Amino acid sequence: MRTLSSINPIAIASCLVFCFACGKEDSGGGGGGTKLKGIGGDKSGKATAGWKVVSVKPHGRAPNAVVVTLKARKDVRVLPSDKAPPVTMPRQDHGAPTYRPFDHSDEGRMTFDVSELGSGKHEFTLTLTHHAMIGVKKQLTVTIERSGETKLVDSRFRGQRILECSGGHKCRVEFSLGALKVTGPAGTKVKFGSQTGTLSANEQLRVNLEPWPYLKGKTIAQIKAMKPSIPVELTFPDGKTASSTISGDELKPWSWAYTYYSYKEGGKKIEGEPAYNGKPRGLAHYGTVYGAPKTLAEIDLVATDKRKTDTKGCGVFKNKKKGSSRGYTLKRENKTVTVYDRRTGKQLHQKVFKAEFGRCPTVIGTKSESSLAEVPRDTIGGWLRGLVGKK
After folding, report:
1. pLDDT tens per residue across all 391 residues of the chain
2. Which CATH number belongs to the domain containing residue 130 in this structure?
3. How many domains does the chain have?
4. Does residue 59 contact residue 155 with C-beta atoms inside 8 Å?
5. Dist CA 11 CA 9 (whole Å)
6. 125, 162, 236, 294: which one has the fewest Cβ atoms less than 10 Å from its Cβ?
């Protein structure tokens, strides 16, 4: 039997080096149909044979972002060249210029901000280096082609429509509450339906929708069923254009109607409406209509409400196990509902509705701090319904 001391130390070192470099190799293949390829810089032979660019695709929700998918190994670091656009994901290594897209698998993704790239073909390199295997690295070339055409592309939707320019210009269009907010190069002309405007330097332009042409001559039922499509067009100082449409539920035609005859503008008479006979035929409370009006002209009253909250303390609750304590508060909603004459904006009725405080609990949850009692909608609705036919 040979003892450890009798084994050649050089043989041990050779074995360790050989085993350290071993590992399952990734299969090779093409570049996912993109104009991307690996070039030069490979000093590690078969260890990097499967390292490649899998695909380059536009980001689904960010029009000026590109996602590059890479194939390599876990624990590989990526160093973009100086010509590369800014990396937005993943985060940069702390204290180093490299990124770690391969922390969890052999396939990693990097997102690049290409908003500053002009039209045409752009190339940059990514150097992939294994964190533990010294000398195992490979350099890949990424090619991105940018069209000179500017397009308005959906960015995201969080309660409002947001569009951004993709291509040769920078711009942002937000649609909310019947108005466009546009930012872009000074001198850009904006057209939204029949409304127009021009961007000044360092200024955000607001273009309000004029709803009456879309509402005129329609019954309330027709307005609620409307799904119009209104074009948005931007003409940049160099003559190039970008366009899109605002349509469907985003426009909320019924909300246009409410805005149109809102008391906030001092009342509003509707074109072509018959003479008022002194008896209200319909009342609108935001999206709810009381009475049986068939047209906007038959909505004679408009109601709004303001909300306030009262509070009532329930004392302090102690957690004996943790030795902590926390207070608990009951809240109740108060709503002041005001009714106006739609034609003149004159206040006609007002009533305060108060919810009932709940009961203080005997035990509270680990995260509970308060509860809110709200005014039942039927309570307010019943009062408003009773006003139709009164003046």
Report:
1. 434 344 344 333 333 332 322 333 333 333 332 333 333 344 556 789 899 999 998 887 777 789 999 999 988 999 999 999 999 999 888 888 999 999 888 999 999 988 788 778 899 999 999 888 888 899 999 999 877 667 777 765 555 678 888 777 788 888 876 788 999 889 999 999 888 999 987 678 888 887 778 888 888 889 888 888 889 999 999 898 888 888 766 777 777 776 655 555 567 777 777 766 778 889 988 878 899 888 888 888 889 889 999 898 898 888 777 777 888 899 999 999 999 888 888 888 999 999 988 888 888 776 677 788 889 889 999 999 999 866 5
2. 2.60.40
3. 3
4. no
5. 5
6. 294
Domain that holds residue 291: 273-387
Query: What predicted TM-score, i.e. pTM, was given to this entire model?
Result: 0.53
Q: How many contiguous H segments (helices) and E segments (strands) does the chain have?
A: 5, 23
Any residues with CB less than 8 A from the CB of 83 and at least 6 apart, and which?
122, 123, 124, 125
**Is residue 234 located within the same domain as residue 301?**
no
Shared-domain flag, residues 362 and 326? yes
Residue type, 388: V
Pair of tokens at residue 142: 């990424």
